[in-house]
Design a protein that fits this description.
Blueprint: E1 3-6, E2 24-28, E3 31-35, H1 52-59
Antiparallel strand pairs: 1-2, 2-3
Bound molecules: zinc ion (ZN).
């Protein structure tokens, strides 16, 4: 069974970009996932270390400079 942990109030977390909830930490088999407590289909981080930085990045209203489109080859 997975365990859930509240994130300490002192730690800054962006609210879930879909529903505005504060994320929780799920502990599964030695690994941690930062996820939305309301819906498992909302963004969650990859299992591993507690990655609040990644959560914050993905739930920011404005996506910072990220190369989504592959760069085109120069002619
Ligand atoms: Zn959510």
């Amino acid at each position: 069974m997975a365990e859930y942990f509240q994130i300490q109030p002192a730690i800054f977390c962006e609210p879930c970009k879909d529903c505005g909830a504060r994320p929780v930490i799920q502990h599964i088999k030695e690994k941690f996932v930062v996820l939305c407590p309301n819906d498992k289909d909302h963004y969650k981080t990859k299992p591993g270390l507690v990655d609040i930085k990644d959560w914050n990045l993905k739930n920011k209203k404005q996506i910072p400079f990220v190369n989504i489109v592959p760069a085109q080859k120069a002619p």
